[in-house]
Here is the input.
Amino acid sequence: MLKIVIDAMGGDNGVEPIIRGVQSALKCRAFHAIIVGDEALISPYLDSSDKHIEVQHCADYIKMEDSATNALKKKDSSIYQAIEIVRNGEADVVISAGHSGASMSLATLRFGRIAGVSRPAICTTMPRIDGKPSIILDAGANVDCKAEHLVEFARMGYEYAKSVLGYENPRVGLLANGEEDNKGNELTKEVFKELKKYSFFKGNVEGNDIFNGSVEVIVCDGFMGNLVLKASEGVAEAIIKILKEEVKKSFRSKIGALFMMNAFGALKKRVHYEEYGGAPLLGVTKNIIICHGKSSPRAIECAIYQGINAVESKVVEKITSDFLI
Here is the structure.
């Protein structure tokens, strides 16, 4: 049976949403969960029916104010222990909503990079108007990049979109300030020349192309990718909040809302970050899914599904094979 390690510590809302998310996922998918964290905090949320959950006690964790560079020294922290379980071949994937910088650093150092990959990248799923997802990478792991790094991101993103998301021929776009070939800064212009060698490359894309279905993979440096991600999350939450406020303003709106409940629910499901769970770190030799610090039970549940899909699709092995060529 597939084994999943879940770091229960360091999330913004404590261990409860982590445990609830694991329990929900176990109702839908078969796997064995190894929850790493403070047993005294975790046990109250477990009962005799949780037979596929085991707890590995670990009271220490990387706090948000801690430096990611110090994570390697804290060998008794929950994320370090969780990563070691997968590193030693005792489980298949790590899920963590704790310190994202520590998770990335430890995964890179303890798992190691895939041969030929110089910079692992965070691969974040985004909603599209056709109901299918697109992905952005890098979404925050590398704020300063060279052209060869973005070419690597494109190759890894293409393989992820094909293997995990199921696109037969994923199209890759380079995020720039215009679709014309000569648009962009010096970095993107250099990357453009290199990506033209690949059949999957569509060309430059703009911000709206992330959502309109014109490409499946959007490549950029981690600085730009993280800005796009956070702005998109903010817009999605603002739209949902504005709709709710407008509904409350009049009786007619409230009556209309009764007929629109399904539509509101569908909108939230398509645009809210929790429905996408977390972001895989591509380019390391094992599977890890990095979640939002404020992840809800639903977000953790979806992150687990994402981890299962990554393992079952053998995306790490396929990226490894691609970089051998």
